[in-house]
Design goal:
mitochondrion outer membrane, receptor, mainly alpha, 71% helix
Amino acid sequence: MSEKNWDLVPDEELEETIIERIVGLSEFCPDVVSKAVSATFNTSKTMVKGAFYYARNGIWILATTFVIGAVPYLVAKELHEFERSERMSRQALLLGPQKQPSTD
């Protein structure tokens, strides 16, 4: 396997990825800066993971609370409205169109 002499390759033919560029630039930085950037990145990553974890758990708690607490109430309310409308339509059918039934 022969090594390619990169000094002879024209600049227009060189394609560098962002990762290669960052690695190349990191070689110029002192170790203190490199360690500080690494620590900052790792801390940020840990904080984002923690925020995602707590947000996910919070959404789960809110969703289950809604299902356990609010859905039965909404179903009962809808059933009550349905029964009331059925009663009103039955009264209108029995009394005829002249009299309007009183509302509860």
